[in-house]
Write a structure and sequence with these properties.
about 90 residues, alpha+beta, two-stranded antiparallel ribbon, 3 helices, 2 strands, about 65% helix, rod-shaped
Length: about 90
Amino acid sequence: MNKNQKFLLIFFLIIVLAVTSLWLFHGAAIFTQTQVAVEVQDELEKQLGITRQEWVDQFVWGLDLTLSVIGVSGLITLVFYLREKKKNKREKK
């Protein structure tokens, strides 16, 4: 394994760690969400003990997006890794 291949693998691992930590930081949701339900009460609802939900625009990073980024970066890394491997074989001959 040459220097470029090591760099590619380390770069891929950094991407995987960054995306996974981002997913965990956002609450480890399974699906990506663009809106979140929030419970709201006004004064009358407080007296009656009623709660209602409103949808608020908020982006939540999901596992589906995490796996997509990891998959695409893995494919790109694999292509460049194999290209470097082929290039090394040609240079050794």
